[in-house]
Amino acid sequence: MGRTTLNFSNKTLNGTLEVPGDKSISHRSIMFGALAEGKTVIRHFLKGEDCLSTISCFRKLGVKIEETDEEIIVHGEGWNGLKEPVAILDAGNSGTTTRLLLGILAGRPFHSVLIGDESIAKRPMDRVVVPLSQMGARIAGRENGKYTPLSIQGTNLSAMRYELPVASAQVKSAIIFAGLQAEGDTVIIEPQPTRDHTEKMIAQFGGTIVRNGDEITVTGNQVFKGTDVYVPGDISSAAFFLVAGAIAPNSAITLKNTGLNPTRTGILDVLKQMGANMVIEEEEAVGEEKGTVTIRTSNLSGTEVGGDLIPRLIDEIPIIALLATQAEGTTIIKDAEELKHKETNRIDTVVNELKKLGANIEATPDGMIIHGKTPLSGGSVSSHGDHRIGMMLAVASLVSSGDVILENPEAIAVSYPEFFQDLERLYE
Ligand code: SPQ
Question: What's the fold here for domain 23-219?
Answer without folding.
Answer: UDP-n-acetylglucosamine1-carboxyvinyl-transferase; Chain (3.65.10)
